[in-house]
Protein 1
Amino acid sequence: MTIIISITLLIIVFFAIGPTKIWTYFFGSADLGAIEFATFTPSIKPNHALFCPMGYCANAMADKVTPTFDLEIDMLKHKLLTIINAEQNIEMVASDDENYEYRFVHYTKLMRFPDTIL
């Protein structure tokens, strides 16, 4: 019975403090910072995934090859930000409009596990 009460209290504390604050306290910022894709070497951790266009990530094998789009860059930016802004649980953590580089963190709905999107 003590174990059940302890687990229940831990769950209550987890959600009272907030999952995002707890993940940040134990694991640091969800924002991985800027990445230079031309020289990037991905992590070997199983919770890591790399998606990029063919030939874009020269030092790494992409887990999935992403499409390229035949659009003006400002139109592509507009479409990307429209999609991102329509999603819940995503926040922009960095933007460089001059170089069209943006970084986001997406949090899962219940447990608030963070994923960095570059």
Note: Residues 2-17 form the longest helix (16 residues).
Protein 2
Amino acid sequence: MNVDTIQELIDKTDYWDMRILDVTASYFGDEVKLLIENDEVTCWRISFLSCYKVSYNTDADRRKISKVKSMRKSQLGYYGQNITVCKSNKDNFYKVDLDLSIMEMQIECQDILVEQIARNSVELFWDKN
């Protein structure tokens, strides 16, 4: 897929000012998944696949609660501000800049998948006991 098509798919999620539900990395960072609130029934999952480089900055140096996993949904301050996709300097890779309010990420990956999924198909840490 070309950069413009992927950017359109991401923009169609209407992520601006929507709550970011979680960011996960799996398979030694090869896959990074971003969950974005949509409504009571669905959420958006953006998967960054075959990742070459992933970096991020959080608010850990200035927040009052030391561990995010101790927070409840209402205490989280992660909201979609900007997601920009462009071509990477590496052949066949995309470069993505994400501004998630109190978290900024940069990802270089080979593929990006955007899916609307059932909200009850994901288990979020604040829903556990």
Note: The CA atoms of residues 13 and 67 lie 29 Å apart.
